[in-house]
Design a protein that fits this description.
Elements: E1 3-8, E2 17-25, E3 28-38, E4 43-44, E5 49-50, H1 59-82, H2 89-99, H3 112-123, H4 129-148, H5 159-173, H6 177-196, H7 224-231, H8 239-254, H9 258-261, E6 269-270, E7 275-279, E8 286-290, H10 293-301, H11 312-325, E9 331-338, E10 341-348, H12 356-368, H13 373-380, H14 385-391, H15 396-403
Antiparallel strand pairs: 1-2, 2-3, 4-5, 6-7, 7-8, 9-10
Helix pairs in contact: 1-2, 3-4, 4-6, 8-11, 8-12, 12-13
Protein name: Site-specific integrase
Domain Tyr recombinase: 217-404
GO molecular function: DNA binding
Length: 410
């Protein structure tokens, strides 16, 4: 049974907020902006209409407009069925706008940039801070492109836009290829969401050539021997370095992200101090990790109450000091494509270490220790073996050494 309802974009707002039409039909969901706005204090959630209030004297006309839209979506759905057409979000949107095409009550069409701005506001309640930050950065570049090069809307997101936009990010901002790839991926996410809501019917962004750019990153990992050298450092004279070292090692032996290994609480230590059980912040997965002896020692040192972490940026700065003190100074050549050009740099290994090196080290060291890939993925959260294998860092020699113990070579 198809059913229409009206919901507020921000039901707890103190100022006017958009009203959306939500239409559930045949196990599908169609969401449509009415372009009408109301202060939530005048909204009756049960009736899904504006309250009859002397402080809102235009309520009869306002509710009549919502009635018109509700009748319009019901008529549109019924006509599609009567004409033998299977309803979907695209033809339902077209049929609804045809019903409202008298231009008296037809809602204003949402533009691409307006949609993205609204979607980012919605995401602040549902997505992680990091994800919202990526959304905002992508939005900033799109707005600047729209101002400097070509005004953007849904119909402009074509293969021609793709080529011009990648060149724009290369030339104007000298961005790394992987950064550009992240922004293309985010644009595709915006377009998918808009398409699902019936706001967009241009599907060029789904074409094979509208691809997410990805360059294999020259990231490093720390071996078990290197981690032991870090663990053996005498840092009692520097509380800040001692704290950073301990937190980093927790990450190296749990595989948790910085946002998770710095938030471990006593209640996360379970099964008679043999497991860490946490719900990850980024993916909301609940995972269980056996306690490595190094983790046990560090937890005991702090009575299962880990010290407060510095910010990620500050931790990365101090971490380089710690790894340098451990003598991990092997020269590493890295390359990155920026502005369409390959840049090569040679740096001592300690300068390439960051908090994320902990998670990569965990995955790589377990892989080299012959732990089944599926068992590691249960902790790291990788969905496919292909994505997992791109994540670990194994040299050709390490791979050969690993294969020496395989039955095929014996």
């Amino acid at each position: 049974m198809a059913k229409a309802k009206f919901v507020l974009k921000e039901p707890h707002a103190k100022t006017e907020t958009l009203i959306y039409l939500v239409y559930n039909y045949q196990y599908n969901r169609f969401k449509y902006s009415t372009a009408e706005k109301v202060n939530p204090k005048f909204w009756n959630k049960n009736d899904q209409r504006v309250k009859a209030s002397k402080n809102f004297p235009e309520h009869p006309e306002f509710n009549a407009r919502l009635d018109k839209i509700e009748n319009g979506i019901n008529n549109a759905f019924r006509k599609l069925l009567n004409d033998g057409i299977q309803p979907n979000n695209k033809n339902l949107k077209d049929a609804l706008e045809n019903e409202l095409s008298d231009h008296i009550l037809k809602p204003k069409k949402t533009t691409l940039l307006e949609f993205i701005e609204d979607y980012i506001e919605e995401s602040k309640l549902k997505k992680s801070i990091g994800t919202v930050k990526v959304y905002n950065t992508t939005f900033k570049y799109l707005k600047e492109y729209s101002q400097k090069r070509k005004k953007l809307n849904f119909e402009n997101i074509t293969l021609e836009f793709y080529s011009n936009y990648v060149a724009f990010l290369n030339i104007e901002y000298n961005l790394a290829s992987n950064t550009i790839g992240k922004h293309i991926k985010t644009i595709k996410s915006f377009m998918n969401e808009a398409t699902d809501r019936g706001l967009n019917d241009n599907l060029d962004y789904r074409k094979r050539k509208f691809k997410t750019i990805r360059e294999e990153a020259d990231t490093i990992y720390l071996s078990i021997d290197e981690l032991k050298r870090i663990e053996d450092l005498k840092l009692s004279a520097s509380q800040r370095l001692d704290r950073v070292r301990d937190l980093f090692l927790i990450g190296c032996y749990t595989g948790l992200r910085f946002s998770d290994f710095t938030e471990i609480k006593p209640e996360n230590i379970t099964s008679n101090n043999s497991l860490i059980e946490v719900r990850t912040r980024k993916t909301s997965q609940r995972i269980s990790i056996p306690l490595h002896q190094t983790v046990r020692r560090i937890l005991k040192k702090y009575n299962n109450k880990l010290p407060k972490a510095y910010t990620n940026q500050t931790m990365n700065q101090y971490l380089k000091e710690v790894v340098s003190l451990a003598g991990i100074k092997e020269l590493i050549e890295t390359s990155i494509t920026k502005g369409g050009k390959i840049e090569r740099t040679v740096l001592p290994k300690f300068k390439l270490v960051s908090t994320h090196t902990a998670r990569r080290s965990f995955a790589t060291n377990l892989y080299l220790a012959q732990v089944p890939t599926i068992s590691i993925m249960k902790i790291t959260g990788h969905k496919t073996e292909q994505s997992f294998l791109k994540y670990i860092r194994v040299t050709q020699k390490e791979n050969a050494d690993k294969l020496l113990t395989h039955p095929f070579f014996n």
